[in-house]
Amino acid sequence: MTASPGLGTSRTGSADLFRSVFRRHAAGVAVITARRGGAPAGFTATSLTSVSAEPPLVSFGISTAASSWPAVSGAGHVGVHILGEHQEGLAATFARSGADRFGAPTGWREGPEGVPLLDGVLAWLVCRVVARVPAGDHRVVLAEVVHGDPSAGPGRPLLYHQGRFGALRE
């Protein structure tokens, strides 16, 4: 087998290789919220994917070691929030372990189905969880859209690339 020009040196599949490759992949930033008992929970996700238009389905991944997993694992509904480039601080708060994610300055309210909805996001959905599929040390959650607002706030999307939050360039 011959090497293809420009492909560099192949490495054996590993967690390190996986992380290195996906640092080069730009992704939109979302926050997923749920409730456990009466308490809100949430986390920053870059794994949000549209799955189907009929029925309208989304998916996202969550580690079973994440502090939000107990809430997501038992929730009937979740909130999906598309963050704007002005919300880097909010994304960082929901990504930080041990942070008071719903304390000031985070603005939020109870939305449809009792799901915590964040203020100031570009768009949001409330989704009914239809499956939690084991995938290594994560679960892939499939959820059907039941409510939403495609234009909750103005602005452009927040991106995640090379381990940092950023914005689109024109």
Automatic annotation (TrEMBL):
One of its GO terms (biological process) is pyrimidine nucleobase catabolic process. Transmembrane segments: none annotated. InterPro entries: Flavin_Rdtase-like_dom (IPR002563), NADH-dep_flavin_reductase (IPR050268), Split_barrel_FMN-bd (IPR012349). It comes from the Bacteria. Residues 22-167 form the Flavin reductase like domain. Pfam families: Flavin_Reduct (PF01613). One of its GO terms (molecular function) is FMN binding. Keywords: Oxidoreductase. PANTHER family: FLAVIN REDUCTASE (PTHR30466), FMN REDUCTASE (NADH) RUTF (PTHR30466:SF1). This is Flavin-dependent reductase. It comes from Streptomyces minutiscleroticus. The lineage of its organism: Bacteria, Bacillati, Actinomycetota, Actinomycetes, Kitasatosporales.
